[in-house]
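1st attempt posting a full record on here, be nice pls
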Amino acid sequence: MKKITVITINYNNLQGLRRTIPSVLSQSYDNFEYVVVDGGSTDGSKEYIEKQQGIDLWVSEKDNGIYNAMNKAVGLAHGEYCIFMNSGDHFFSALSLENAARELDGSDYCTGQTAVVEEEYISLCTPPKTMTFYFVKGTSLQHQSTFIKTQLLKSHPYNEDLKIVADWEHFLKCWYFDKCSYKALQTIVAAYYLDGFSAQNENLMKEERKRVIDSLFNGKKKLPHIVETKEEKRERLTDNLRFKLRKAMKKEPLSRDWKVLRNGFKFFFKDLFI
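the predicted structure (as tokens):
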């Protein structure tokens, strides 16, 4: 059995494929298989895929959305872990898989760091060392940097009724309700570009997340209260500060400096009283 199955989902994104496929095929690590599922593209993607040497299995046919395509790909996977490197995203370096494979220890979800690219800005998204409900409620694991047990994906397929948050729902259900295990990896796995479908559809994301929360928790206004340790709270505050500083850096100089100063002071006083 291969250790890892790398999966690429694509539909009419030839430009993205030209960024993704070479990064997969250039990996120094060789104990993986590569599966590409294309949704019947008409922009030359299929012809490009056909020419690539090193893709173990690929299919090009109409599907019923990205999560239908992801479930289809999982059905073709034979590795112990799956990672979704969809068209447009790419591995951070040729050593990404090799470095990450050393840390895969049998945990159900193993998430590494992600370089997030937005126009001329690049920031590092680091997964929490310890998973908390606070994190899960407010954000998602970066699927480009997350290795998931293949058997878990086969037994718990993605919800194809959702357009944009089925991977978030999958982790919430499996981690919170089924007590699946999680590990934060130390390596930078992937580069993610904020020009994808989910990045550009924030309102739909909020709407679907609310629907999922209402369904899983029976419409309760008050969600489960989980006490954070000091270390978990400090980590959450630090991640929140990083996010706000990234946003502040895009502002005009005067506004940028004020926001950086304000958020820095807020973090200092909150950290002081943890």
